Amino acid sequence: MMDSRRESSETLRNKCAACYRQYNRMEHLVEHMKVSFHSAHEPRCGVCAKHCRSLESLREHLIGPLPKVECARVFAARGCSICLNLFDSAAAVRYHRASTCQFTRAAPMPRGSYGGRAVAMACKMVGGGSDGSLDICARVCLIGEDENVIFQTYVKPTTTVTNYRYEMTGIRPEYLRDAMPLKLVQRRIQDILCNGEPLWKIRPRSSGRARILVGHGLEHELERLGLEYPAFMIRDTAKYPPLMKTSKLSNSLKYLTQAYLGYDIHTGIQDPYEDCVAAMRLYIRMRSQAHPRDYASGSGETQNNYPAWRQRELERMSPEELLALSGSDYYCWCLDF
C-alpha cells in the first residue's frame, strides 16, 4: 500500500506543468519538454490553465464533441466561443461579444490602426490547361490595416483561359480583355510591399519601411503572380500553428472566419476584398494576444534550454522550472507590436 502511494506521488511530481501529461520517471518528463516546445504563447484554458498546441485543440477541450467536463461546464456559463476567453459573468460575455469580439461582413476600421505596417493580399484564380485545373491569377486585391483598398485590379492572363470558374469568381472574359498586364501588376505590388526599401535590404524584425504581407495560402498566390518576398515578412493564416488543425493540416479561411471572427464568407461569388479583410482581422486578432512582448520565440530548438550536459540538473527541477526553460518553435505574431 505504501509503495502504491509513493508511486502515485512520484508520478504526480512528474506531471507536465503545461499539458498535464504524467510520466513514471523524471527523465521521461525532461525528454517530453525537449520536444514539446511548450511556451507562454500557447493557447491556454481559462478554467484549468492547461496549455494546448493550437486554438483548435483548445476549442476541442472546451466545446468539442468530448470536452473536459468541468471546463466545459464553466465555459458554457462564462466563456466566449469565438476568442475562447473566460469572463467574470454571462453579462460580461454578452457585452464582450457585442462590442469587441463579434465581427460582421461590413468592414469597420479596427481601433488604433490607420493604414499600419501590414498589408493583406488575396487573389482569385481562373482555370487554364486542357482540363481547366491550372490556376491563373485573374484578380488581385491589397488592403491596409484600416481595411481600405490600396490596390485592386483584374490581371490579363498570360496563357489561354479554359475555365473562368464564374460561379466562384464572378469573372467574365470581357473583364480580362483590357486588364492590367501581369508585369505591371508585379511592379505595383512589389512597390507597395517594399514601400521604397530595396528588396535585398529587408531584414528580420528591422524598423525599415517594408510592409508585412498578410493572407491565406500566400505561397501559392505569390507563385501564380511570379513574385518573391522574404518569408520572415509573411504572415500566412493557413500556416500559423495556433490557427491550424494539426501541425500538417490547415483550416480553410472560411472556417477560420466563422470560428474566430463570428461571421460567414464565401456565401456566393467570392470577392478577394472579403478574403483580405478576413485574413487581416485574423492577423490583428492573433497579434493582439496578451502574451509577453519580450519573449524570444521562433528559433526552434535553440529556444529550449535543455542541453544533454544539464540532464542531472534538469531531473532535479520542478515541472514549473522546466516549463520556464521552454520556448516556442514558431514566431508568435504578438511580437510584431
Automatic annotation (TrEMBL):
Gene Ontology biological process: RNA processing; rRNA processing
Record localization: Nucleus
GO molecular function: 3'-5' exonuclease activity; exonuclease activity; nucleic acid binding; zinc ion binding
Keywords: Exonuclease, Hydrolase, Metal-binding, Nuclease, Nucleus, Zinc, Zinc-finger
Domain of life from the UniProt record: Eukaryota
Chain ranges of the C2H2-type domain: 14-43
Xref: InterPro entries: REX4_DEDDh_dom, REXO1/3/4-like, Ribonucl_H, RNaseH-like_sf, RNaseH_sf, Znf_C2H2_type
GO CC aspect terms: nucleus
Entry's family note: Belongs to the REXO4 family.
Descriptive protein name: RNA exonuclease 4
Organism from which the protein derives: Oryza sativa subsp. japonica (Rice)
